[in-house]
Amino acid sequence: MLSFLLVLFAFELCHGSQRPLVIGHRGTAYLPELTLASQSMAHAYGADIIEIDVCLSRDNHLIVIHDINLDGVTNVADVFKNRSRSDGFHYVIDFDLHELRSLNVHERVRPLNGTQVFPLRFPSKSNVHFHLSTLNETIELLLNLNRATGRQRQLLIEIKKPEYHSKYNKSISSIVVATLKSYNLTQSTDPIILQTFHIEELMNIRKNLSSQLRLFALMTWNYVGESSSDYDFYRSEQGIRNLSKVVQGLAPDHQFVVNYDGNGTIISTSNFTKWAHQYGLSVYPYTFRKDLFLGSSFEQLVEYFWHEAQVDGFITDNPDVILELLQRGQISASSYTIVLNIFLSMFTFLFHIIRI
């Protein structure tokens, strides 16, 4: 009986040593976000999946950019001085593709004062020019890098604010699905995943647009106002059970996965991952940024989410760092498994001798 239990334990240990997936959030932290250069770096670092965001231009081109406005990451205010709205911002949907092509992209800054959001990242005032890209260019970059390197990375496309785009009579999801179809990217086995914060839009993509692509449900706090979806419901057991009929993965704010005290210290795991796994869904929390953690605390955070919260992947600005931490953990687990297997073999041999 003891021998059987040890076999089971060894199997579980080997199974648990499989590392989570690493998703390069907006590419990497080391070059201006979402540029083709940043995406290429994430591919080279070994990110399993590269995450991007898309918005629509006035002439219905899918632009790879995180915000619906241009001010935090481009020089739009300098190039188009009189094109801001009454709130002072310049919106992607107000510009045609050829106008957007004329802009330079820089590291993210606060639009009101121009200070860099992450001061130690690529200098926002650098003279190196980066540019906005289209979804078509990103797809071709991924497919061609996969072919050239023989390393199969995937693309996670966030459809930004479908409700916002619908106010301009634009169905951004339809355009995304049609664009992917033009590259014959239509099946769940293709290296493409779609996600959005508007969870009802995922149901539209699956049922009305008849897409077979894998879908992830992004989740945040209701007060953020990211969409009209009720995240309080969708992160409940019933909500997760309902989602399991439509999506394959959940991408929640990391605070949904663990419980923190008032000082920001993790005190326990929530039921989120347990419920997700119970209904066959994977969990990929966001966003893990090394800039926000000092010393070994980032390593400890990753270890907790891996081993205690048992997430299936990390959405991170630092795919290289998390890959290194996970691989280091895999080696340690594998070494322990080897020792355990040797002990198990010796124990089984002695057990049979005693029986004889």
TrEMBL record:
GO molecular function (one): glycerophosphodiester phosphodiesterase activity
InterPro entries: GP_PDE_dom, PLC-like_Pdiesterase_TIM-brl
E.C. no: 3.1.4.46
Domain (GP-PDE): residue spans on this chain: 20-326
Catalytic reactions on record: a sn-glycero-3-phosphodiester + H2O = an alcohol + sn-glycerol 3-phosphate + H(+)
Name of this chain's protein: glycerophosphodiester phosphodiesterase
Species of origin: Rotaria socialis
TM spans (from-to): 333-354
Keyword set includes Chaperone: no
Superkingdom per UniProt: Eukaryota
Keywords: Glycerol metabolism, Hydrolase, Membrane, Signal, Transmembrane, Transmembrane helix
Record-level GO BP terms: glycerol metabolic process; lipid metabolic process
Similarity section: Belongs to the glycerophosphoryl diester phosphodiesterase family.
Signal peptide annotation: 1-16
